[in-house]
């Protein structure tokens, strides 16, 4: 790899020090298939050390004044902004997403640090009117303790800061296990956190290939009092079961199967723009990407033609190249799943409007399929690829029924210019987040999370602090 990026490091980060492993694993650039760097593959001893130092650091960090915690977070934010281009390059090298997308992720990811630097001052309690004149009732919020975070590969910075920033702001210490496909961004920003003034042991990054074993260590440790995980529903269920052994606080952002409804009164041009923005970020590999495009029959053909034309203009290639809009899939398993879903849909009657072609390596052509049947795999499973799957519906009630016909409930989108319909549909959709005439819904100030098998808890917003605090009730006798 030819780069002068000094933030690229292959060491874990424990107690403010770079930790080399006896073994290493390669981080692969999915656009080229080449190794970026070898990274420490930690053993159980090293992981348990990270837990121990986190516990020791918590004794002082929880007593650190709010103003100091906030200032450190602000310093960290400023350093990430200063190194925006280097961090964006790392994101593209390890995840494959286009460089312009990576720059947007740096802005988005750093915004959580800026937001929670201010929220550190607002972990409010309440004074509750007592039914008895002889008592005064007060609630306060305190940090939960040592926290652990397990993050996915698709947003190597934003998924990290969305968990780390509120934990630090609340007064918790935290151990981060980034995805083995994309650990380099997390390591880089951990070094910047130390440079910002974060004490040793408060934020530790552990790296390793055996994610299941590391997850088990973190979820069963009695020292770890909080576990935050973003990933698949299947892994989330396993971690929840393991975490039950120590009754720790948990929050999970899990799988999705987002519907994108286009009603017959929609602004079709706006709907196409929103669909492209929502669907093709990171080649469709986002948990809130629309997985099912439900289009009312009266405008189905017009919308299908318009989105096909828009998709055909998307340039595919290495994310470091100019004007590229769609990068590679993350690995062979991701490619095989996309191919399997497309093949299954075609066998069951779907039509190709564009794409449906493996290009080379891990690149797959942006695709539009029409009249995908409800029994297709991609109707029930998250495809996680650059595929627009179009389904027809007749009435508003049919559209809502189809949208809610899933075990997941993370994000949903719809387009309509009827204000009464907007309120009806938004209320009826079984989803934690709803985009109404909008394809980009993620924001640090808004609560991110789902219902049903899409998870528990919320990240971002004022509610994100609740996940890393405990509510304590104080009763004063007068």
Automatic annotation (TrEMBL):
It holds the Pfam family Aldedh. Belongs to the aldehyde dehydrogenase family. It comes from the Bacteria. The keyword Oxidoreductase applies. PROSITE patterns: ALDEHYDE_DEHYDR_CYS (PS00070), ALDEHYDE_DEHYDR_GLU (PS00687). NCBIfam families: SSADH. Gene3D superfamilies: Aldehyde Dehydrogenase, Chain A, domain 1, Aldehyde Dehydrogenase, Chain A, domain 2. Residues 23-473 form the Aldehyde dehydrogenase domain. The active site is at residue 253. It comes from Olivibacter ginsenosidimutans. The keyword Oxidoreductase applies. Keywords: Oxidoreductase. This is NADP-dependent succinate-semialdehyde dehydrogenase.
């Amino acid at each position: 790899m030819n780069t002068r990026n000094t933030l690229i490091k292959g060491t874990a980060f424990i107690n403010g020090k770079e930790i080399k492993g006896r073994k290493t694993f390669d981080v692969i650039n999915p656009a080229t298939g080449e190794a970026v760097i070898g990274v420490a593959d930690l053993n159980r001893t090293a992981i348990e050390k990270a837990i121990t130092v986190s516990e020791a650091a918590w004794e002082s960090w929880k007593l650190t004044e709010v103003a100091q915690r906030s200032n450190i977070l602000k310093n960290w934010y400023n350093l990430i902004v200063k190194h925006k281009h280097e961090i964006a390059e790392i994101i593209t090298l390890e995840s494959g997403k286009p460089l312009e997308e990576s720059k947007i992720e740096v802005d988005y990811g750093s915004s959580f640090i800026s937001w929670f630097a201010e929220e550190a001052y607002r972990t409010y309690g309440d004074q509750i009117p007592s039914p008895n004149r002889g008592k005064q009732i007060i609630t306060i919020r305190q940090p939960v303790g040592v926290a652990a975070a397990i993050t996915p590969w698709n947003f190597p910075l934003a998924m990290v800061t969305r968990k780390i920033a509120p934990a630090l702001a609340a007064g918790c210490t935290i151990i981060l296990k980034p995805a083995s496909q994309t650990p380099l961004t997390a390591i880089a920003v951990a070094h910047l956190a130390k440079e910002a003034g974060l004490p040793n042991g408060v934020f530790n990054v552990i790296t390793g290939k055996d994610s299941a074993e590391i997850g088990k260590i973190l979820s069963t440790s009695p020292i770890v009092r909080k576990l935050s995980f973003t990933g698949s529903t299947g892994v989330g269920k396993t971690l929840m079961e393991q975490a039950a052994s120590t009754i720790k606080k948990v929050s999970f952002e899990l799988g999705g199967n987002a519907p994108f409804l286009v009603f017959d009164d929609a602004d079709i041009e706006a709907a196409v723009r929103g669909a492209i923005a929502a669907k093709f970020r990171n080649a469709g590999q986002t948990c809130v990407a629309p997985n099912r495009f439900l289009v009312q029959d009266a405008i189905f053909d017009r919308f299908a033609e318009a989105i096909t034309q828009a998709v055909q203009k998307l340039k595919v290639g290495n994310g470091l190249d100019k004007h590229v809009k769609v990068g590679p899939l993350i690995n062979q398993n991701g490619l095989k799943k996309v191919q399997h879903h497309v093949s299954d849909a075609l066998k069951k009657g779907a039509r190709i409007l564009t794409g449906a072609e493996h290009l080379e390596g891990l690149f797959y052509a942006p695709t539009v399929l029409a009249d995908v049947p409800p029994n297709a795999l991609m109707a029930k499973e998250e495809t996680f690829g650059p595929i627009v799957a179009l389904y027809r519906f007749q009435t508003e009630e049919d559209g809502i029924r189809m949208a809610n016909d899933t075990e997941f409930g993370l994000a949903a989108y719809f387009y309509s210019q009827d204000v009464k319909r907007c309120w009806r549909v938004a209320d009826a959709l079984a989803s934690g987040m709803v985009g109404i005439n909008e394809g980009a819904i993620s924001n640090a100030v808004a609560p991110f999370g789902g219902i049903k098998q899409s998870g528990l808890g919320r990240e971002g917003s004022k509610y994100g602090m609740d996940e890393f605090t405990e509510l304590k009730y104080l009763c004063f006798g007068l």
